[in-house]
Amino acid sequence: MARGPGLALQSQPLLSLLLLAAVASHAAAEANCTCPTNKMTICSRDGPGGRCQCRALGSGFEVNCSTLTSKCLLLKARMTAPKHGRSLVRPSEHALVDNDGLYDPDCDHEGRFKARQCNQTSVCWCVNSVGVRRTDKGDLSLRCDDLVRTHHILIELRHRPASRAFDHADLDAQLRRLFHERYQLPPRFVAAVHYEQPTIQIELQQNMSQKAPGDVDIADAAYYFERDAKGESLFPGRDGLDLN
Ligand SMILES: *[C@@H]1O[C@H](CO)[C@@H](O)[C@H](O)[C@H]1NC(C)=O
Ligand SMILES: *[C@@H]1O[C@H](CO)[C@@H](O)[C@H](O)[C@H]1NC(C)=O
Ligand SMILES: *[C@@H]1O[C@H](CO)[C@@H](O)[C@H](O)[C@H]1NC(C)=O
Ligand SMILES: *[C@@H]1O[C@H](CO)[C@@H](O)[C@H](O)[C@H]1NC(C)=O
């Protein structure tokens, strides 16, 4: 069983995340031509017939603002975002714990990670569908087979020990609802929620045969959640969790 990134999060905003009944509106905001699911985009009415079209920063890839943007495109946008500029999210030191850190990834024509990633230099390695390195590093001759799909992602986070314990059943229901409403992930892909104060584990599971076309990928839902839990929401405006 492949294991996704274990996220060790200090999760102050968790409570506000769970209490956030109102959810990011996923209806494309045609009126104002913005992307409701990805603030790291540039939108304009350049589409056919003046249609609002949004392109990811960094790649120029046209994104579908009715659904989540892929993690690969989001990482790429993050790497190319200006270091200052408070409206853009900045890389934090709490990157994925079992990753080699942030890198500027190569994404394929669907916005997914290419199986082989190289480090601008001649250092290359193979990644899984979450973008995490899964082989030793090699040189440009390194061959990677098809992208290895991560069908099990374990998200681990902690709330402040001092705060009151959650009711497990309640927490389970709230997290499933959050993943469904905010990240459009059907509840059947939330395999389990474990809780032992103050640690919360969320298991996402989704293999290729279970994923219908148009279903959100667990890799992307987990990444949006991670950024939300760190107070670095990828959703624009007030739907973000900048409230703390
Ligand atoms: C569009 O912008 C106008 C004026 O800035 C604002 O009143 C309106 O609520 C916005 N609509 C949407 C859908 O964001
Ligand atoms: C890629 O290069 C950067 C900067 O040189 C480095 O910090 C990072 O660890 C490298 N990543 C890998 C996977 O080699
Ligand atoms: C996908 O998951 C289902 C349900 O857990 C399982 O029955 C099936 O064997 C899995 N398929 C693959 C290819 O792993
Ligand atoms: C955008 O995503 C939605 C939701 O997955 C899907 O129904 C729609 O067909 C997609 N639009 C395009 C142009 O791919």
From TrEMBL:
According to its record, how does it sit in the membrane? Single-pass type I membrane protein
Q: Which UniProt keywords apply?
A: Disulfide bond, Glycoprotein, Membrane, Signal, Transmembrane, Transmembrane helix
An annotated GO cellular component: extracellular space
Single biological process term from Gene Ontology: positive regulation of stem cell differentiation
Kindly give the CDD domains that the UniProt entry links to this protein: TY
Please list the residue ranges annotated as the Thyroglobulin type-1 domain.
Answer: 69-144
Signal peptide positions are: 1-29
- InterPro entries, per this entry? EPCAM-Trop-2_C, EPCAM/Trop-2, EpCAM_N, Thyroglobulin_1, Thyroglobulin_1_sf
Keyword flag Glycoprotein: yes
Name the principal localization, coarsely classed: membrane
Intracellular or extracellular location(s):
Membrane
> What does the sequence similarity comment in the record state about its family?
Belongs to the EPCAM family.
What is known about what this protein does?
Answer: May function as a growth factor receptor.
Give the protein's recorded name. Tumor-associated calcium signal transducer 2
Identify the species of origin: Pteropus vampyrus (Large flying fox)
